[in-house]
Specification:
Helix content: 40-55%
Strand order of the largest sheet: 1-2
Order of helices and strands: EEHHHHHHHHHHHHHHHH
Structural class: mainly alpha
CATH class of one domain: Mainly Alpha
CATH topology of one domain: Serine Threonine Protein Phosphatase 5, Tetratricopeptide repeat
Number of strands: 2
Largest sheet: 2 strands, antiparallel
Shape: elongated
């Protein structure tokens, strides 16, 4: 049975199977609206392929309602470029194209400082508190919402109902609601609103890496690569073994044309999570961009042996072979690419962000001319 390059989801942008090239994602995400903001759980298993659900330390047992520990952060991991390539339904990435022009008018982003030592002791929450029980149930309703608009409304209800309540669990619960509402807004292409929500989530929950990581994804989608890179570095300062943050930092560096640094970041992501297939694909692109063309081609072939439907890698290999003068092999490879977006060189350059030389090679392949 062939491994699928499409993201699978365990209802979160959640534990995606490691065997999927969608493994470049990490978090919880709803199909088909989800596309570039892959969502994932706070503790991203190295084998997970997509944004996974998760929450942190275990909390009190609230019978009949979800415990605080079950109030999931949903994480947007794979950066805009990788998620755009992996998702055939292109919900968020197309929305980003429509709103990208607002990026220049947005305020500067203050540097993030994540402080894991401030994480609350959830065992101190009173499991008999009726307000906590009601809040936990409402969070679960939001996670189970059948559509992104209703999901956003339910997160807003949590914020409105509990934001001014004086309880020790309020920053934890309301901060999560802000972060998840940011994800819902980002999936609708409303990135400025998403940034505001991520900022508030980070303020209320300064111990959590997820709102900062998700904010980086949104900034990257808007072309604010330096700001995105700063957020990813903040995540890595608190969680240096986070493979998604390394992958995303690689994408931000690639967006800035720093392919050598990008290669190092992708390599770190793959070393930490060998099944993170999209990071491996990104590393192959960075190898090619830094002049290691034959190793890049070997890496692409290896990935296709594992994930034969991985169109991103197959298209890149076709372009790389064409650039290398192996035109017959390139045409054979290209004939098996089913995703029509790879015919759009503007998309390749601006959304998927292939190395310029590889975009030129694909252009030549499409025009049947030598590079």
């Amino acid at each position: 049975m062939r491994a699928s390059p499409m993201p699978t989801r365990a209802l979160h942008h959640g534990s995606v199977k490691a065997a999927s090239p969608a493994a470049g994602w990490c978090g919880r995400h709803r199909q088909p609206a989800a596309a570039t903001l892959a969502t994932r759980a706070a503790a991203w298993p190295p084998h997970a392929a997509a944004p996974a659900t998760g929450c942190g330390a275990g909390g009190a047992d609230v019978s009949g309602a979800a415990a605080p520990s079950a109030m999931l952060w949903r994480r947007g991991v794979l950066s805009a470029a990788a998620a755009a390539a992996a998702a055939p339904w292109l919900g968020f990435s197309r929305a980003v194209a429509a709103v990208g022009s607002v990026a220049a008018g947005l305020p500067a982003i203050a540097p993030a400082l994540i402080r894991p030592e401030l994480a609350p002791d959830q065992s101190a929450y009173d499991p008999t508190d009726p307000e906590l029980r009601a809040a936990a149930a409402l969070l679960q309703d939001a996670l189970a919402a059948p559509g992104v608009a209703l999901e956003e409304a339910r997160w807003g209800e949590v914020i409105e109902r509990y934001g001014s309540l004086d309880r020790n669990w309020v920053p934890d619960v309301v901060g999560r609601a802000y972060g998840n509402r940011g994800n819902a807004r980002a999936r609708q292409g409303r990135l400025a609103e998403a940034l505001a929500d991520y900022g508030e989530a980070a303020r209320l929950c300064p111990w959590s890496v997820d709102p900062v990581l998700n904010r980086g994804v949104a900034l990257e989608a808007m072309g604010r690569f330096e700001d995105a890179a700063a957020d990813y570095r903040a995540v890595l300062a608190a969680a240096p073994d986070d493979p998604s943050a390394w992958n995303n930092l690689g994408n931000a560096n690639a967006g800035l044309g720093r392919w050598g640094e990008a290669r190092e970041c992708f390599g770190r992501a793959v070393a930490l999570a060998p099944a993170f297939s999209f990071a491996a694909a990104n590393e192959a692109l960075a190898l090619w961009a830094t002049g290691e063309r034959e190793p890049a081609i070997r890496r692409m072939r290896s990935l296709l042996r594992r994930y034969s439907d991985f169109d991103d890698v197959r298209a890149a290999l076709a372009a790389a072979l064409w650039a290398d003068g192996r035109e017959g092999d390139a045409e054979t490879m290209w004939a098996r690419v089913e995703d029509s977006r790879y015919r759009d060189v503007v998309w390749l350059k601006e959304r998927r962000r292939w190395p310029p030389g590889l975009v030129e090679a694909m252009t030549a392949l499409l025009e049947l001319r030598s590079v």
